[in-house]
Design brief:
Shape: globular
Number of strands: 13
Order of helices and strands: HHEHEEHEEHEEHHEEEHEEHEH
Largest sheet: 9 strands, antiparallel
Radius of gyration: 21 Å
Distance between the termini: 14 Å
Helix content: 25-40%
């Protein structure tokens, strides 16, 4: 199976068109990070490979996303609890306020209810139009296609209702933070729907990137991005959706999905989250970038693993916050293989 450390060989083996496209969007380096171990550590087998570490850095020249890969990062000593402890915490949280959504605040234009979820008005808002989509099941581990479709469909109905209330609000955003590692303050399954009179920063950034890229290369950025990933074995089609094990992930196991509509997106998100579940992922962030209401365009979802729920250390530090370069241990080529199983 190929690895991120084989990137140079993989790129050189591409046909001329794909290789040129790769170099248009990406640059990379592969270097050896060297250190000297004290005798006390050198005697331990688990540290035997640490004196010469292969570091791969990949940078997207169009978006300036940048990621450093080092598989040894996953072997750092950490404090953990057992999965039984985590399940106990989730079980003991039953009976929280989201278990009785009728007791939560509602938007002044009412609630939107689906088969598997219902909206509430967030009592501590991110923005002035902000709903919580509360799952009817307490369990936060939702990956069934019909449930994800219902969650997304309710979000889109809420966008329309909120925009009727404030006609200026045409820029929607959907985000799903699953459990505490992903920033969720309540264990009960829920997602967020927001809409504003101004586009959110990352959507505006992508919109600008696409326009500049189209002007410079007469091509659609995300189509070219997918073409590179597919050529390297990191991308595949699921129905009319495109799925990528992203080459410059913000953190572990990041996947990007490009879909034509909510039905296709729900199918693809369900597929990815089921694979995540088999990999042991329980906490994740998912976001959907949605075109302004009244316009047509594809939907872009990004989903990222937020790590073991029992680990006390944070997965995001100064490198991600201030250097603009993420540090990860998961090889995207290994992720691609796990996604295709």
């Amino acid at each position: 199976m190929p690895s991120i450390v084989d990137l140079h060989k993989l790129v050189e083996n591409l046909d001329d068109g794909d290789r040129a496209l790769f170099h248009r969007i990406y640059r990379y380096y592969i270097e050896i990070g060297r250190l000297r171990l004290p005798k006390s550590m050198k005697a331990k087998e688990k540290f035997r490979n640490y004196e010469a570490q292969q570091i791969v850095r990949v940078t997207n020249k169009i978006t300036y996303e940048s990621t450093l890969f080092n598989k040894l990062r996953s072997k750092r000593p950490i404090m953990t609890k057992t999965s039984e402890d985590v399940n106990k915490v989730i079980d003991e949280s039953k009976g929280d306020i989201f278990c009785n959504p009728e007791n939560t605040p509602e938007d002044i234009f009412g609630r939107i209810e689906g088969n598997f979820c219902i909206t509430a008005s967030n009592i501590s808002k991110y923005d002035y139009l902000h709903a919580v989509i509360i799952f009817k099941d307490h369990a936060p581990f939702v990956y069934e296609e019909e449930k994800i479709y219902d969650i997304l469909n309710v979000a889109f109905k809420w966008f329309e209702k909120a925009s009727e209330y404030d006609r200026r609000a045409i820029y929607p955003f959907f985000v799903w933070n699953c459990l505490w590692r992903a920033g969720a303050s309540i264990i009960h399954g829920h997602a967020h729907a927001l809409i504003s009179k101004e586009p959110y920063g990352k959507y505006e950034f992508y919109d600008s990137v696409r326009k500049i890229y189209a002007k410079n290369y007469n091509s659609e950025y995300f189509e070219d991005l997918y073409r590179i990933h597919e050529a390297l074995g990191l991308g595949f089609n699921l129905g009319n959706s495109k799925i990528m094990a992203y080459l410059t992930p913000i953190k572990e196991k990041e996947v990007i999905i490009i879909s034509e509509n909510v039905t296709e997106l729900a199918k693809s998100m369900s597929y990815v989250l089921k694979r995540y579940h088999k990999m042991g992922v329980r906490s994740f962030n998912a976001a959907v970038f949605i075109p302004p209401l009244g316009t047509t365009d594809f939907l872009i979802a990004r989903i990222v693993d937020r790590g073991d729920l029992s680990i006390k250390t944070a997965d995001i530090g100064g490198m991600e916050l201030y250097a603009g370069t993420s540090v990860v241990s998961t090889d995207p080529f290994a992720l691609a293989e796990m996604l295709k199983i």
